[in-house]
Amino acid sequence: MNIGEISEKCGLPAKTIRYYEDIGLVTPNRSDNGYRHFNANDLHKLTFLCRARTLGFSIEDCRILMALYEDETRASSDVKSVAKQHLTRIDEKIAQLQSMRDTLSHLVSECAGDNRPDCPILNDLAAVKG
Amino acid sequence: MNIGEISEKCGLPAKTIRYYEDIGLVTPNRSDNGYRHFNANDLHKLTFLCRARTLGFSIEDCRILMALYEDETRASSDVKSVAKQHLTRIDEKIAQLQSMRDTLSHLVSECAGDNRPDCPILNDLAAVKG
DNA sequence: GATAAGGGTTCCAGTAATTGGAAGGTCAAG
DNA sequence: CTTGACCTTCCAATTACTGGAACCCTTATC
C-alpha cells in the first residue's frame, strides 16, 4: 500500500512516516514509479512506533524497543527495564508540573483579577531572592 | 555588573542571558570594552524571567508578563488571565502524562521481566487496532 | 615584556521530533 | 488533455536554549 493508506491505518501522518524512514526506523520498498510501498510488517512497525510515541517514549527508546521487538531471543527483562526507566521519567515530569501547578494556582487565587495594577503574581515573579 | 555576576544573582546561565538579549527580553548597556553592563533593573527583569520560566511560562508568555510588569497602568486581570491559561495548559499536560503513566505502569506490572522473550509490553505496542 | 588564567565577545551549528511549504512527477477519471 | 488527488524531494522553521570555535580584555606572576 502507499503512504496515504498506511498513514490512515497506523495513525501517523505521512510526513512523519517519511521522517521515520529518513532516520532508519522503517525501510519500505519502492514501486517502479518511485512511490513507497508498505507491507504488513511495515504496518506493524509503524503502529508500534505510533503507540510507543503516544506513551511518550523517545525516538531513541523506540529504536531500542523495536530492536527488542524484532529480536525473537530477547529477554522480557530488557523491555521491562526500558519501560520502567521511562515510567520514572514520567513520574519526575508529573512531580515537576504538579509543583508548578501548586505555586501557580496559589498565586492565581491571590490575585484580585480586577482593573487595578496591584498583582501578587507579578510581585512574586519579580522578587529577588536573598 | 558583568554577565558572570548577574548570572549568579538571577540564576540564569550567561549563555541564556545573551540569548534573552538577542530576542529582545533585556537590553543591557555596554561598557567601553564592549562588555555588557547590567544594572539593578536588569537584575529584576532577569530574575523575573528565571522565575517565570521555572513556572513553565513560554518565552512569549514571559514577553507578555514582562510588558505587564513594566506597565504601571496594567489591570491585574490581564496578568491573571495569562496565568490561568498557563494553569490550564499545565493541567492538560499533567492529565496526559497521568494517562501515559497509568497505561505504562499497568503494562510494566504485567511483564514478567525475566529472560524469556514473551512480553506483554511489546504485545501491546505492536497490536494493530480495529 | 611574555604569559597564563579567567573573565568577556561574536557567530555558527546542533538539539528533539516533527511540520510547512515549494516545486515538481504520477495516476485515474471525465 | 486537463483536473485533482496522490506522490516525490529538499529546504526551512519550530522551542529554548547549549556547545564550541576563534578571538579580545584584564590582572597577576615570572
UniProtKB/TrEMBL annotation, chains A, B:
It comes from Shimia gijangensis. GO terms for cellular component: cytoplasm. Its main location: cytoplasm. One of its GO terms (biological process) is positive regulation of DNA-templated transcription. Pfam families: MerR, MerR-DNA-bind. One of its GO terms (molecular function) is DNA-binding transcription factor activity. InterPro entries: CueR, DNA-bd_dom_put_sf, MerR-type_HTH_dom, MerR_fam, Tscrpt_reg_MerR_DNA-bd. It comes from the Bacteria. NCBIfam families: CueR (TIGR02044). It is found in: Cytoplasm. Residues 1-68 form the HTH merR-type domain. Coiled coil: none annotated. This is Cu(I)-responsive transcriptional regulator. SUPFAM superfamilies: Putative DNA-binding domain. Keywords: Cytoplasm, DNA-binding, Transcription, Transcription regulation.
